[in-house]
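Please, structure for the following, as tokens.
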Amino acid sequence: MIPFDEALARLLATAVPVGPERVSLDDAVGRVLAEDIAAADAMPAFDYSSMDGYAVASADLAGSGPWKLPVRGESAAGRPLPVLDPGTACRIFTGARLPPGSDTIVPQEDVARSGDEIALREAPRAGAWVRRRGADLAEGAVALRRGARLTPGKVALAAALDRPSVLVARRPVITVLCSGDELRAPGSPGLAGSVPESNSYFVAATARAAGAAVRVAPFVPDDAARAAQAVSTALRGSDLVVTVGGVSVGDHDVVRPALEAAGVTLDFWRVAIKPGKPLAVGRAELSRGGVVHVLGLPGNPASASLTFVLFGVPLIRALQDDAAPLPPRVVVRAAGGLRRQTGRAEFLRARLEVSGGELVARIAPNQASGAVTSFADADALIVVPADQDRIDDGDRLQAIRLAEI
């Protein structure tokens, strides 16, 4: 077994980013930028008012008040721009350009208007309520950097920068291959002892959330030759093949030898984590050039889900050249305790809640590797270092929010 951190580092070091493609902003959320986006013009592009009121020249309000100014003209967003005559005020609305000759906005609630004249008792600070050209971004400044995953806010910024489309990493193609004679599709009839297959649903949904395009292949029976053929087929057109089950050393575990028979070179097998020790990591060199990455996940549902979260998601992000492929960790207070054997890092499924102004992680009572229920109820993974033999109620530990994977 190799330590978790070493295994993850070795995996990500082999990641070969996929190529770019151009997409419209309508399809850009969740994609990873493959280019820097700079401001072609300053943002905002002109001085404008942040209030409804009156544009004035602060020099016209020298001395002691009160002051009376005639109102001449009007500036509204998207309308022709008037020029401020000396000694006058111009009606202005939020978002409207500042008329030449003015430098200050007086909010409408701070004046008394009578006909075409306003009166004010206090002089505003010069430049008040004016948003200056370039206050957000200087001309030529990089607004969005390559490797950023596009959130709704980033897409809106790209639109504000007048970009109808962006260059992003194409979606990595992931093929999911589940093995086992006992598997059947949910809702379909089966022999005694068969089980409805569920792992592919977790892996596919999680991969899509990470930005991948997913294909789910037909189930692979526990037959060495057919498993090797299935792996060979899955490698074609994929950037990553994820197998589920059959990577341990049992008599019916045919996937690991099938990977080798299909030309997959295994980098390592077995990682010092709990659950999920029998994880196979490798890649295949294609005859036409290029590389297909391979993850062989264990078959137990909690183990398969956990290893895909810990290894599959960062790899998918790295294939998109994501600047932050690893999920952030937060500090939580453990609610509940346990004793454990040292030697493997453990990732405990837990529920998060807020108590006393801090995040509390309530450890799920069922941590069995075969428990599908544990990931259905969990929204975080508590990270327990390999050398820690116990968790006490109230201990502070790192955790990974599942919503942020």
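The chain has four domains: 4-19+170-319, 23-40+144-168, 48-131, 329-404. The radius of gyration is 30 Å.
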